[in-house]
Amino acid sequence: MLVLILSVCFIDDPTQCKDVNLTYVEDNVTPIQCVMKAQPEIAKWMEEHPKWVQKKWTCARDLPSKKDNI
User: Fold this and answer.
1) Distances in Å between the alpha carbon of 68 and those of 36, 40, 58?
2) What are the C-alpha distances in Å from 5 to residues 17, 22, 31?
3) What is the band of 69 on the pLDDT scale with cuts at 50, 70, 90?
4) What is the mean pLDDT of the chain?
5) How far apart are CA 37 and CA 43, in angstroms?
6) Residue 24's CB: how many other CB atoms inside 10 A?
7) pTM assigned to the model
8) How far apart are the C-alpha atoms of 45 and 10, rounded to whole Å?
9) Which pLDDT tens digit goes with each residue over 15-41?
10) What span, in angstroms and rounded, lies between the C-alpha atoms of 6 and 68?
11) 32: how many CB neighbours lie within 10 A of its CB?
12) What are the start-end ranges of the H helices in 1-70?
């Protein structure tokens, strides 16, 4: 599964940054589809979170967390 990783920083304190994982609903999204669908997803997230500014984004494989392997 691919996720869209959005790096954002707080507008009032640019040193406060975080990565946000936006998981696609479809299971079999290709890397090209991830890139093509990224801008609308980013715009939607930014509209819902007006106190944050986007710094960068990327598509990456979503790795299972360690607790999922127990």
Assistant:
1) 29, 30, 24
2) 13, 6, 13
3) very low
4) 85
5) 11
6) 18
7) 0.77
8) 14
9) 999 999 987 656 778 889 889 989 999
10) 23
11) 9
12) 31-48
Contact 5, 57 (CB under 8 A): yes
Distance CA 5, CA 31 (A): 13
DSSP E strand stretches across 1-70 = 2-10, 13-23, 52-61
Place of tokens 């479809």: 26
Query: What ranges do the domains of the chain cover?
Result: 2-63
66 pLDDT band, cuts 50/70/90, is very low
For residue 67, is pLDDT > 80? no
* Cα 48–Cα 50–Cα 51 angle in degrees, nearest 5: 130
